[in-house]
Amino acid sequence: MLVQVRKTVVTEGNADKVVDRFSGEGLVEKQEGFIDSTVLVKKVSRGDEEVMVIEAHWKQWEKSDAHIAGHKANLGKPKPEYIVSSEAALYEVKSVKKAVTES
């Protein structure tokens, strides 16, 4: 299983724009191999805000026509002005701990 971690830094007051983009219905959750997506916002009192999107999936999503087409459609388009920086990396999951409930 792979996990993609995407960190986006935005100007103050714009974290919700990124949250909305990755929280709404999209193509990824309909793809074979998709497991889940988590969107996190780093708490800050003021200044730039940080949004982390963590998506767990199998390799099928990375190679899917929908994923590739989405990237091609945005090729050459300028990023929104409120985005300071964005980076993404893929990680291979080696271990997962689950909660243990006692009966």
Write the layout of secondary structure elements.
Elements: E1 2-10, H1 15-23, E2 34-41, E3 49-57, H2 59-63, H3 65-74, E4 83-92
Antiparallel strand pairs: 1-3, 1-4, 2-3
Please tell me about this protein's structure.
This protein has 103 residues and is α+β, with helices and mostly antiparallel strands. It has a single domain, classed as Alpha-Beta Plaits, CATH 3.30.70. The protein contains three helices and four strands. It has a four-stranded antiparallel sheet. β2 (34-41) and β3 form a beta hairpin. It is globular and about 50 Å long. The two termini are 31 Å apart.
Percent strand:
25-35%
Q: How many beta-strand elements?
A: 4
Averaged pLDDT, please? Answer: 89
Based on Cα principal axes, name the global outline.
globular
Main sheet attributes: strand count, strand direction, barrel closure:
4 strands, antiparallel
| Widest sheet, order of strands | 2-3-1-4
Number of DSSP helices? 3
CATH topology, by name, is: Alpha-Beta Plaits
CATH architecture: 2-Layer Sandwich
Level-1 CATH class name: Alpha Beta
The domain tally reads 1
